[in-house]
Each structure stands twice: as structure tokens, then as C-alpha cells.
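Marked as duplicate of an earlier ticket. Keeping the data here for the record.
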Amino acid sequence: MNVLASIRDRTLRAWPLALLAGALLFYARSYTNYFVCDDYQFVGRINFDNAADYFTKSWGYGNEYRPVVAYSYALDNAVSGESPVGRHIVNTLLHAANSILIALLLIRLGVERNAAILAGAVYIVSPVGHEAVVWMAGRPVVLGAFFVLASCYCFLQACAAERRAWRWWIGAYLAFILALGTYEVAIVAPLLVTLTGRAAKIVFRKYWVHLATFFGIATAYALFWNWFFEFKITRFPVEESILGGLHSLWLAATHTFHGSLRPAVAPIYAGLLIVFWRARGSLKLTGLAAAWLTAAYLPFFIVRGYADRFAYLSSAAGAAVLALALAHLVKRSRAVGASTIIAVLCYFGAGMQHRITDWKEAGEIARNITQDIKRALPEFPDDKLVVLLNIPPMHRRAYVYLTGLDRALQREYPGQEIRFATSLGASADENSIVFEYADGRMKRRPVDP
């Protein structure tokens, strides 16, 4: 019996490996997805020789201070070269690590292990994560979330440690600083530490110096960021309406609960939550989740519009609440609960697989566009106007060439100056070379007289 118990215990402790393996298998279809949109900002352009430049300049197309991301992509380029496979696998590994950290945080908060593991599984397959995980340019989101979650976990562990707490403190501070150099959402880490610490019944008056230091670092970062970019936000239009920000938060919440606005699905979520809320302590946990979702979304209140990647860190709260509700249902009826868990995971998984297909097709469209042009024009002309019409910015829920077409063409024509127009303006004449996108291909067409 002791041997069997030992084997069972070791098997149960292997759950992180199970989540990791499950994530790698689940996202395997995405590994060959081709480059799209912002991907061309870094593919073949960032290496260990120039990564340090991003400590003194903006990342991407706007005011974004993300020097840690540059080193991440430099490593990708060193290992994967021109192949997308390695980059996708790294995103998946980070996503799996985030699901494990979410489960560990929930266990640290007193949630039963099975419910915490289920939350990690829900988070892995949640469709709201598609932009962050399946899109290679989503690396700042998944990497930034990893550092934020790691910082929160290390902070709680340091507060609970009776010996050698300094190791956890080093981890907490290091992860927080790396998060700030990765993605702007990290500025809310002190708020998330406070929320999880209170839920874990941490006596903060014993650790007020560390908590104050976290808030101090966040304040210093905000001041530095604004000074560095001369108090300007350039990439996204700024949301000036409180109602607009609240609407984006509402979209983050509803997208976290996949399909929750559908008449056939909403009652199922409502029933699960109503049953769960009858359990002792459930409202407190739901309140904590709502606070996490809101706090993690705060940096995006100033961004006009909504994108699923904005909800990546926030959606951890939804995964936790849904897992807790499902675990409670299992206690009431094992058969019904198990069936519902399978149904929810399959529903979420199918939604994510559809999005993987969208990104795969978007990548093929992006590749066909540049390759069709290259076949028709072996040399890019510098004495004639090239006009590219109807270039798709998106394919369903995936980006194609919202940005990045110029850099994608530079990959096809290395060393050549690439200039083109996307409409037939006054500068177009009978000598212009015109391509039009239709039915998945770029086709050359005559210039209208």
C-alpha cells in the first residue's frame, strides 16, 4: 500500500508535465503557420549584435519600451533562422508555463489541487489567447505575462518562507523588472501582488517595505516611460471615454468566457455560476477574480478598441472561476461534473483550433502575396510605380498585412529599395505595374485608361 501510495503521489505531482505536454500537442498544428503582419518587424532583423539597441529606442511601430523582447527574438533568430517552427514552439512553451503558474498561484491561495490544475487546462485551450499564443508577434504578451505571474508567485512564496526567503525575493524583483522590460501591462504587477496576497492572508504590515518597493518601481517605470517617449502615445489612438474603456473591459470578460454572448451558451455559464455561488466562500473568490480581471486590463483602458491579446493576463481570472465552478459541480454529481468538464474543454478547444486555422490561412495568404509578386517581378522596379490593390489587412480573426507588407517584400528583394502604392492615385500612369489581390492570390491587371 505504501508503494502504491508513493507512486500515486508522484503521479499527481507530475501535473505540470501533463499541462506542458498537453499544450505542446494541442498547438502542434500552429507550428508551421507562416509569418504575418508585425512578425516581419523582427524576423531576420534582430540578433544579439543589435538587440541592445532597443534599450535606447522604441520597439515596433509605436512608443513601446521592450528591450527584453528583442533578446527573445534574437535567440529565436539564432536557433530557428528563417523557420517559424521554433518561434511558435517558444510561444507555446511560455503559454504552458503561464498555465502552470496560474495553477500554482491558485494552490497557494488554498484552492484544491484538482481545481487549480483544471484552471490551468482551461487557460491553455481558451480561445481568447489566440493572438498572444498563435501569432508570433504575440511574444511580448505571453513573455510579459510569464514574468508577471512568476513575480506574483515568488512574492507570495517569499512571504510564506520560514527559511531562505531571500531567494524568493530575488525571484520576485527580478521577474518584475524583466516584465517591465517586456510588456507595458507589467506595471499592474503590484496591484496583482496585493490582490493575491490578501487572498492568501499575507500580513502585509510585515512586508510593507517590499510591497512599497514594488509600487515604487512601477512609479519609476511610468515616469521613465513617459520621459523616454516625450509623454506621447503614438501607436494606438487614445481612448478618451470612460464608457469606451468599460466597454473594452466588458469585451475582455465576455471573450474570456468563450461564446458567453450566444443565446445557447450563456444559460450554461449562468447555471454553472449560480450553482457555484451557493458554495461557501465562492462569492469572495469570484470577487477576487473580478478584481484581477479589472486590474490586469487597466493599462488598456487608454487604448481605443479591443483586441484579444489585451485580455490574455486578465483571462486567468475567468479560467479560475470556471474551473472552480466545474470542480464544485463534480462534488455535487461526479458524472454530471465530469461530463461538463469534458464538454467545456472540447468547446474551448474547438474554438481555439478554429482560430489556429484562421492564422494558418492568414499565413498562407501573406506568403502567396509576396511570392506572387516575386514571380511576376524577379527584380523590383525602381523606375515604375508598383501599385498593390486590395491587400487584406485581416483574414477572419487573424492579421495578414495590417502592417508589415513593406518588410515582407524586403525579404523577397534583399538590398533593393521597396516603394509601392496601395491605390491608383494621380501618380499612376500607363507605365505603372498594378497587382490586385483576389481569391487568395495577387494577379497582375492592366492600368485603367
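See parent ticket for discussion. The beta strands are 386-389, 394-395, 398-399, 433-438, 441-445.
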